[in-house]
Amino acid sequence: MKKPVYENLFKPLKLDGLRLKNRITMAPLYLGYAASGGRISPLLLYHYKEMAQSGAAMIMVENASITPNGSGSPRTIRCDHNRFLNGLETLAHTIKNEKSLAGLQINHAGRFAHVSEPVAPSVVPAFGKPPRALTQREMTTIQKQFANAALRAKKAGFDLVELHGGTGYLLAQFVSPRTNQRTDAYGGPIENRIKFPLEVLKRVKDTAGNFPVGYRFLVDEWLPDGLKAKESIVLAQGLEKEGVAYISTMGGTYESFFLPEIINKAKKPGYMVSLAATVKKAVGVPVIAAGRISTPAKAESILQKKSADLIGLARMLWVDPKWPKKARKGDDRSILKCSPKCDACLQLVMQGKPAFCPKWSKESRAAYRELFQ
Ligand SMILES: Cc1cc2nc3c(=O)[nH]c(=O)nc-3n(C[C@H](O)[C@H](O)[C@H](O)COP(=O)(O)O)c2cc1C
Question: What amino acid positions are annotated as catalytic residues?
């Protein structure tokens, strides 16, 4: 095969016993394609087949809930019961058949859960709705639910799982000084606030055995009184000690994403790369950078500067699933770009509708629409 134009981007990487054929990964992207009730749907399978056919080394499937009480929406994938096993198995095989590694992101949405009585570390209202503070007994149950979900993912044939510690969901709620106001051993200084996610990782690893576990990592909440890198890197170092496979970095939560200065920040190419670089300086495990990495040239320079070890593409891959193939040829110019002015996908999924990209051809949109149930 001809030598790729971007050499760093196409160098393989060993990751906790797995071999990534290149440095391109799909970052988790919830698009509202699962069937109502969280089952795997024909549309979801069609979508992930397309993502895996892209040539990305690893596809991290969007957040899947570990308990109905921690689900972000009615169309969030569920992996909290063995009745979901068959669907998950089909999904894992669909991805692996295309020669990509298949990962499942597992999550508890905490105070952002789409339920009547959301739970959280402390009673800090989310958009006016106060959650109920978790008891330590309930926290142990949630740790077991994470472990069981990971085991289910392993049984279904996934190559790895990713714990969702980003977007301000439950694991991040424990780490944040805003949302964790507990007075027990899980609150107070950062060393206490990281205890819960570290215990989750340990329990998942102990239960699932020889199975890589990555972590979606909130570096900075982008809120004045929120979590900052100075504290979050203490968690990064703790995760490394507990054997995490990689750290996939991100910034912001639902409480900061829609602030005018954050909307502006998020329009810039590579807007979260500096977060990855900060974490990479603090740990030895592979670090993923994401956030409008719209061209292979940008991705190559991130790797060259050692700001990250892997590239995470979410909307960038969804808008143009040929991104990796065009990158191999150095054909940056023909890549369909996600417009920084457009947030149609986010608006649609927040209204509970499936996302379609205005950049797609009529035929592509029709193919997706036809499969939507
Ligand atoms: C509609 C939408 C859904 C997302 N869903 C998830 C998710 O399920 N899990 C997660 O960790 N990040 C999620 N993200 C964040 C992405 O993984 C990624 O960090 C972000 O979109 C920036 O990368 P991009 O510019 O390539 O899209 C989501 C982002 C958007 C816009």
Answer: 169
